[in-house]
Structures are given as structure tokens and as C-alpha cells.
Amino acid sequence: MKFRTLLGCLVAGVVASGSALAADPIVIKFSHVVAPDTPKGKAAEMFKKLAEERTKGAVKVEVYPNSQLYKDKEEMEALQLGAVQMLAPSLAKFGPLGVKEFEVFDLPYIFPSKEVLRAVTDGPVGQGLLKKLETKGIRGLAYWDNGFKVLSANKPIKTPADLKGVKLRIQSSKVLDAQMRALAALPQSMAFSEVYQALQTGVVDGTENPPSNMYTQKMHEVQKHATVTNHGYLGYAVIVNKKFWDGLPTDTRAVLEGAMNEASRFANAIAQQENDDALAAMKASGKTEFYQPTKEELEAWRKALLPVHAEMEGRVGKDIIQAVYAEAAKLGFKN
């Protein structure tokens, strides 16, 4: 009798243990370097919500914003090692990884409109670039918008000549470095999480960012002037550790792909409004004086920066630059 009772308890314990193991969720650590109230931050939270709801808790997404886990240069290695499963790095991050073609997105004035940008990311050019990441152990899932960049500094910058000798923070990108040197500025590569303090202490004089990043990181509190040049684009690629992604149950992966598609539509729909709102809020604060260049002044910025396209052909690839030009031409734009 005692033996049967003991056996029953053991069986019950094994069943309970097996049930607990079966109930353990698949955890996706999603790390990024910007604030939760940016377009990327909100899209990450949307993906978390959809993924957890649609898998009925079988997947748990842990979002870590503001470089809580890793800084810019650390996060890609962490993904490849499997320390995190998902990132949404800026497109400039893939050049240092060895996929230099991604730096086409950094070229100044390469995208004359959001329609051209979307034709590139959603078409064969953008999808082909994501495919190139697979040799690095990375699966590319989607492109997320942020927006076009403004230049900021502690002096008025109405013309390209005003940036001569100005120390400007950039992401680690050969194209962005060449862009700033074309303006006779002094580019300083630096992690995003360090920019506010660097501006505050004078380590750098200024930077370039979409308004949403500038506002949520409070850079307008330590920059006296900004110019709405819209000279460059900042977007992101949502990526996952390929081994992890390929190892998911097929049905779970399909549900997550659907959640990512919806989160991506959300991200790209809100990006422009978020930037418009951020720009309005910074103007209203009165801490940074924003300058809107005239049509003639914008043409001067374009003239100063377009030579970077030819200069970077050997690095980025003439064929991919021409492919972007071709998409622009289909929509009636000329470079």
C-alpha cells in the first residue's frame, strides 16, 4: 500500500514537472538603444503585445530600451552569440559588420521621398540586402522607419560653410564620415547612449538626428541651434539570431512573422507623425532655435553633399547606388 502511494506520488510529480516544462514560454530578448517613446520603441512594444497575445503566452518578449543591455557596438555581437535574440539596429550598423552595401541608406539625399524609400526597402534591393545578413548568422525580418535628419550645433548653421571645423557626432559609418568631411566638419564616432553627455560637456559640438531621437534624448536642452536639412535618412532593420529563429516551431514562427508584419506597418505609419510632434515640441520649448532653409539654401546643401555618392561607390557598390536611382526614376525623381 505504501509502495503504491509512493509510486503514485512519483508519477504525479513527474507529470507535474513535465507540465511545468511544457508551459515554460519561449523568451525573446529584444534590445535597442533608443527611448521607449520613439517610433522604434513604440513598435518594439507593439511587437511584444502582438506576439504574446497571438501565441497565447507561449512566447514572452522582453524589451530592453535605452541601451539597458548593450550599447551600439556591443549589441550585434551579443545577437550573434545568442545573448539576445532580437535587435533593431540602425542601418549604418551593418557596414562595420561587413555588409557594406547597407551604407547606401547613409548616403546624403539618396531618397527624394518616402515613396522612393519604401520602394527600395520593400522591393528586391532591400530584400536582397536582408538576405546578405544570413552569412553572419542573422535573419532580417523587416525595415522600420524613423525619419530624415536635422543638423544641430551650438552655433547657427544656415549654410554648409557654417560647419567648417565643427565636431559632429556620427554613427560608425564610412559614408557618414565622408559626408561630414565633405562639409569640412570633424566627424566623431560615438555610441548613441553617450551623445547627450558629450554635447553637454563639449566633447562634440553637434550631431545629426531625426527630431524624435533628438527630443526623446533631450539633446535640444544642450543644443542652441538646429537646421532642418533633411539631408539623410535614419531607419532600422529588425533582425534575429538565425539559429534561434530557424529553431522555433514552424507554427510559432509563422505567428511571430505575422506579428512582425503588423508591428512594421504600425512603425512605418507613426514615424512621420512622431517626428513632426517632436519637432513642434522642441520649437515650443524655446531651448533650440530651428532654422528652415529656403529652396535655394537646400540646393546648396545638396550640391555640397551629392559628390559623396560617387566617392563611396567603391565601398557601397555602384550597382546598388544605381538601383536606388532607378527606383527613384520610376517615381519621377532624378538624382
UniProtKB/TrEMBL annotation:
Tagged with keyword Phosphoprotein: no
InterPro entries in UniProt: DctP_fam, TRAP_DctP, TRAP_DctP_sf
GO cellular component annotations of the record: outer membrane-bounded periplasmic space
Signal peptide: 1-22
Assigned keywords, A-Z: Signal, Transport
GO biological process, one term: C4-dicarboxylate transport
Domain of life the protein comes from: Bacteria
Alphabetical list of Pfam families matching this protein: DctP
UniProt-listed PANTHER family: C4-DICARBOXYLATE-BINDING PROTEIN DCTB (PTHR33376:SF7), PTHR33376
Family: Belongs to the bacterial solute-binding protein 7 family.
Protein name listed in UniProt: TRAP-Type C4-dicarboxylate transport system, binding periplasmic protein (DctP subunit)
Source organism of this protein record: Magnetospirillum gryphiswaldense (strain DSM 6361 / JCM 21280 / NBRC 15271 / MSR-1)
